[in-house]
Design a protein that fits this description.
Chain A has 470 residues and is mainly alpha-helical. Chain A has 20 helices and 2 strands. Classes of the chains: A mainly alpha (470), B mainly alpha (487).
Chain lengths: 470, 487
């Protein structure tokens, strides 16, 4: 809760910075603020409660609109850590632009939305969170004003995002119509008391909300916007979309479906299983033929979304699904930040074509090694974090009726190795396009060292994160 | 603790090597690998005098909530393979002294990393740990092949990587499935090998069949068995010699040993049901690979195919699941590992001295270098399993074991002895004997390092042919215990 206040305050402060002329110290201020908000997640950490029980007084605030329980705090922690890394990656983004303070404010408000999505306990807060997160992202996607691709990305994102919001609202309305409450606990209570005697439009509402959130996490077949938006947006904004935004959307999906709609898992499970299967197949096959690393990462993020959806699909009692999704989102976010940092440094001008990576091992061995670790983690090779992430998801899903998805996941993971290794081969095997060494500034070097070590560390001792709720 | 050391020493060695610049790295690598070998001898002595020693097992918790332990241990069977690994790695490093590689520190660092993973695979007593080491072994060898391989290496090593990853992932799913069935009585899930055995045995035939095929796929790809072998010849030929030695000398045994330790005891019903099919794959592979080896023109490729034939017989012996078959498989794994390293070094020497591996373009080398001809002949005879060479014990036991499984199967599998002699002796005739070709003229004396490796290999061939008792005893007692355990 305190973290949310701090980030909101920072956002307002960022808008004032232009007027009161403290633009120069804004960047360090934001970094410190995010760290402080992160520290607050530890302060607020409370004794474990069963997330399926009705909201208790301890964690609920604002008349049960928001509830910072352990799950919410853990996901907030992931988002804040990723955001901190992201700000280091994006330091240049805030130097080159003329209206810096606006960009700071937009990113910070997007973070506010993200934190709300991890902690909502009422569907109105869910909608508010989605919108507070999305609207700054639409603007940021289009923030390279003179670039047509960036404009296209922002416009496409806005139009498609509005559709999704429409679906979400409609779904909320239908669910409210059936249950008479916006409250997640209330909905869950309603379902378990109704013994199957639920009006059909309630299910329609649930499915519409599923579709809206699948759009937000860019799962197939609602993924068409993602590659264009990812490619058109400035690289750092793409990094933000594929880490913070994605983690937040998953926290929301998980809260809504594993808490609110927990008891009707059979109804939405079938549909979600199909969505996952489609996402795995479409994303991996399409990614294999991409020439732009940025676009390839966009497709790979669809595949990772499908993996995290598997955790939601398992819909387990207790904390199995949640901790596996938490671990996955952390592993994926850190791996993504590392790979986007390398991508940003390697291809400042050619927008991520794979040729830019040719011979990187000679031009800058350090970048190449960091990229290898990040790619191995994304591909899920032991002992990186990505391997354990996949493993935990598999373990969660294996006891459910949706085991067959594991077969699809295994086959598509092997295809996935193909495109990650394409980059790897380019770095170590192809002749370099120029002999000039790639320069990396100090902050990015530190960031890469931290993310690489982090990827290996949580791979070697995953117990701390996976057992966090116990 | 000793087992833990056996895993940690190569890891530290590889980290050290990554830091060392220049050519000093290969001496350092050789020294460290000899230390590792000495350690394994200590472990061997320990095992002989006190098999229940606490020094030989290590068990600490890794991920508590998931029941994952870092559990490794040496028993008679894993001891044999660890010995093979620690014996071969110094030889492999020594064999590289005749070639200069770019970035030698990375090269040797990766070899030592590979050794760590291999020792881990052979000693793991926890299903999850086994899988981690299994996958970990793939990374260094992939980079060794990619960075120091020959023409077209990007495509070929990639095929190799995806092929094996594909199999491994199925194994992962099957292992998780087994894991989810553990703790039937106690309710506590565990990755410990004995719990996985029990979980497997409590399954129905249908469930066991799924587990069997998922895991068998991974092992069959690694060995490789027909028809999953298509990655192998290209990879073997293209990899740098040391990479090929690691792949065929040691890594291949991950598949056969895995079949024995991680599949036979887990799915007894499925083996009764599907063992015949698997046996068919193994035996047909023997015939198929032998026939292709006969018509090979490239010597390295010929050895690659002969390796498929040998491993087919080993797999057949394991699938027969009787004392002779399993014991023979253990002995043959050792013999094949040693011999194939010798043969691949010979192929490498041929290329370095004559510039070609084509059997047609070689000939009459014996007249230029008699010592080389003798050493070559000894290793080759070991490989065709002549009595009094190391190959004989294993092959004899294997065919004996397969015979107990089925006479016809043994008849076909036994052809490997005859066909093996055909392609091996023909190649020897083509390369060493006959008219002296132009390519042979430049064939001078061998480099000291090459000579040393060949002599050590020859000594091993003869010593364990004449006196196989210490290893054979270990294999015999190990297999007895193993069979008692799984019955």
């Amino acid at each position: 809760m305190k973290g949310l206040f701090i980030i909101s305050g920072l956002g307002i402060l960022a808008m004032l910075a232009e007027i009161f002329k403290f633009k120069k110290i804004l960047y360090p201020l934001v970094l410190v603020g995010i760290l402080a908000a992160y520290a607050m997640t530890f302060v607020d950490w409370n004794p474990p409660t069963d997330h399926l029980s009705r909201l208790d007084e301890l964690t609920a605030s604002f008349s049960n609109m928001i509830r910072f329980d352990q799950v919410a705090l853990a996901f907030s922690g992931v988002i804040l850590v990723t955001a901190f890394f992201w700000f280091i990656l994006a330091s240049h983004y805030f130097e080159n632009e003329t209206n810096i303070t606006d960009h700071f404010a937009l990113v910070l408000f997007a973070l506010v939305g993200a934190l709300m999505l991890t902690s909502f306990s009422n569907m109105t807060t869910l909608f508010l969170g989605v919108e507070i997160l999305s609207i700054p992202m639409y603007v940021l996607a289009a923030s390279r004003k003179k670039d047509i691709a960036s404009n296209e990305a922002g416009f496409k994102y806005l139009i498609m995002g509005s559709f999704a919001s429409g679906f979400l609202l409609f779904g909320i309305a239908l669910v409210y119509g059936a249950t008479g409450t916006f409250d997640l606990g209330g909905i869950s209570h309603y379902i378990s008391n109704s013994h199957g005697d639920v009006p059909a439009f309630f299910y329609a509402g649930v499915i519409m909300m599923l579709i809206a959130l699948c759009f937000k996490v860019s799962a197939a077949p609602f993924h068409f916007w993602a590659p264009d938006v990812y490619e058109g947006s400035p690289t750092v904004i793409t990094a933000l979309m594929s880490t913070v935004v994605k983690t937040a959307a998953f926290a929301a999906l998980m809260r809504l479906f594993n808490v609110g709609f927990h008891h009707i898992g059979d109804v939405w499970g079938q549909i979600m299983a199909v969505v996952i299967g489609l996402s795995l197949v479409i994303s991996n096959i399409t990614a294999a033929s991409q020439q732009s690393v940025k676009r390839m990462l966009a497709y790979s993020s669809i595949s990772h979304a499908a993996f995290m959806l598997m955790g939601v699909l398992a819909n387990k009692n207790g904390f199995d699904s949640i901790s596996s999704i938490l671990y996955y989102s952390l592993a994926y976010s850190v791996g993504s930040i590392a790979s986007f940092t390398v991508l940003y440094n390697v291809s400042k001008d050619n927008n991520g074509h794979i040729e830019a990576f040719n011979g990187l091992s000679k031009r800058n061995p350090f970048l190449a090694v960091c990229m290898v670790v990040a790619l191995l983690s994304l591909a899920g090779i032991p002992v990186t974090a990505g391997f354990f992430a996949k493993y935990f998801i598999f373990t969660t899903l294996i006891g459910t009726p949706y085991k067959w998805l594991l077969g699809v996941a295994v086959v598509t993971s092997a295809i996935g190795a193909y495109y990650y290794f394409k980059v790897l081969i380019a770095m170590y095997f192809k002749p370099a396009i120029s002999t000039e060494p790639v320069k990396v500034e100090m902050s990015h070097t530190v960031l890469l060292i931290i993310t690489t070590l982090f990827t290996l560390a949580i791979g070697i001792v995953p117990g701390y994160i996976i057992g966090i709720f116990k | 603790m000793l087992t833990g050391l056996l895993i940690i020493v190569p890891l530290i060695a590889s980290l050290l090597l990554f830091l060392v610049k220049g050519n000093g790295s290969r001496n350092l690598a050789l020294g460290l690998s000899v230390v590792e070998f000495a350690l394994s001898i200590v472990a061997f002595m320990q095992l002989k005098h006190n098999p229940a020693s606490k020094e030989l097992v290590l068990n600490c918790t890794w991920v508590e909530s998931m029941g994952i332990h870092f559990a490794v241990g040496l028993d008679s069977l894993s001891m044999l393979l660890v010995l093979l690994t620690t014996f071969l790695v110094p030889l492999i490093i020594l064999s590289s002294f005749g070639t200069t590689y770019e970035r030698p520190n990375a090269f040797y660092g990766l070899i030592m990393l590979m050794q760590m993973a291999l020792v881990g695979v052979f000693t793991a007593n926890d299903g999850f740990l086994f899988y981690v080491f299994w996958e970990l072994a793939l990374i260094p060898i992939y980079f060794i092949c990619l960075l120091w391989g020959g023409e077209g290496r990007a495509r070929i090593t990639f095929k190799f990587f995806v092929y094996t990853l594909f199999g491994s992932l199925f194994m992962l799913v099957a292992l998780i499935y087994l894991y989810s069935h553990t703790g039937f009585d106690s309710g506590i899930k565990s990755w410990a090998i004995n719990d996985l055995y029990e979980a497997g045995r409590n399954m129905t035939l249908a469930q066991q069949s799924v587990v069997f095929w998922c895991i068998f796929l991974a092992f069959a790809i690694k060995m490789p068995l027909f028809p999953l072998h298509t990655w192998q010849p290209d990879t073997y030929v293209n990899a740098p010699t040391q990479g090929t030695m690691l792949l065929s000398g040691i890594m291949l045994k991950m598949g056969t040993f895995g079949l024995m330790k991680w599949l036979l005891p887990v799915t007894p019903l499925a083996i009764q049901e599907w063992g015949g099919v698997a046996m068919g794959m193994a035996v047909f592979g023997i015939l198929y690979a032998s026939c292709i080896a006969i018509v090979q023109k490239d010597y390295k490729r010929l050895i690659a195919y002969s390796s498929i034939a040998h491993v087919g017989l080993i797999a057949a012996g394991i699938l027969s699941a009787n004392q002779q078959g399993l014991q023979g498989a253990m002995m043959q794994m050792l013999a094949h590992g040693v011999n194939v390293v010798g043969l691949f070094l010979i192929a490498d020497i041929l290329v370095r001295h004559t510039g070609t591996r084509e059997i047609d373009r070689l000939g009459g080398i014996r007249s230029m270098n008699g010592n080389f001809a003798v050493l070559f002949l000894i290793i080759l005879l070991g490989s065709v399993a002549l009595p009094l060479t190391n190959g004989f014990v294993g092959e004899f036991l294997l065919i004996n074991g397969v015979y107990q499984y089925g006479a016809w199967v043994a008849a076909i599998a036994g052809l490997t002895v005859i066909l093996g002699a055909v392609y091996m002796l023909r190649s020897y005739q083509g390369i060493m004997l006959g008219e002296r070709k132009d390519s042979a003229v430049a064939f001078g004396p061998l480099a000291t390092s090459d000579k040393a490796v060949l002599i050590i290999v020859c000594m091993a061939v003869i010593a364990f042919g004449v006196y196989p008792k210490p290893l054979n005893d270990l294999a015999e007692s190990g297999v007895k215990e193993f069979l008692l355990n799984i019955k």
